[in-house]
From TrEMBL:
Residues that span the membrane, as ranges: 14-36, 48-69, 97-115, 121-139
Keywords: Membrane, Transmembrane, Transmembrane helix
Protein name (database record): Uncharacterized protein
The UniProt record lists the keyword Membrane: yes
Length: 167
């Protein structure tokens, strides 16, 4: 007996895309190991590349916390709840991609600096900081859905982002 096909929800699709995008960071780190880690990890570079990566991480975190979850509130309309929910997910997805790009920029900056400093340590630091930053700020989990839903619902209109609309 076969089970009928059920289409994935917006959350499942977004989670799959985010997991795929997050997987690029460890994969690129592994590839860069073969480029920059020819003699093991090597020596620690001068402190300035590491400090630049840390400054980029602080900037990315600040951006995500202060601006990343802002959105205009939903406006009242006679649209069905399912349409409102679809718009909410569309806006949440766009915000998630923006926050992901900001978090990933920490890793990309570390890659560029690693070639300048000729050290794999810089890439490693960038990956170790960027992945948890991504999972905290951009992963489409309950915390981030609730934060974004609060912004959407600040005008008093339910977003249905964290639950199903009542039919």
């Amino acid at each position: 007996m076969s089970t009928p096909f059920t289409a994935p929800t917006a959350q499942q699709r977004l989670t799959t895309v985010c997991a795929t995008m997050a997987a690029a960071i460890p994969m690129m780190t592994l590839v860069l190991w073969f480029v920059l880690g020819t003699h093991g990890l090597g020596e620690l570079p001068a402190s300035w590349p590491l400090l630049v990566v840390l400054a980029a991480a602080v900037s990315a975190y600040s951006f995500c916390e202060l601006i990343g979850f802002r959105t205009p509130p939903l406006e009242y309309s006679s649209r069905p709840a399912a349409e409102v929910q679809t718009e909410s997910w569309r806006r949440f997805t766009a915000s998630t991609f923006t926050r992901f790009a900001v978090c990933e920029s920490v890793f990309l900056i570390s890659v560029a600096l690693a070639f300048v400093a000729d050290s794999f340590w810089v890439v490693l630091l960038g990956a170790v900081i960027a992945l948890p930053l991504f999972f905290w700020e951009a992963w489409p989990g309950e915390r981030n859905q609730r934060r974004f839903a609060a912004a959407l619902e600040s005008g008093g209109i339910p977003s249905y982002l964290t639950g199903r609309p009542q039919d």
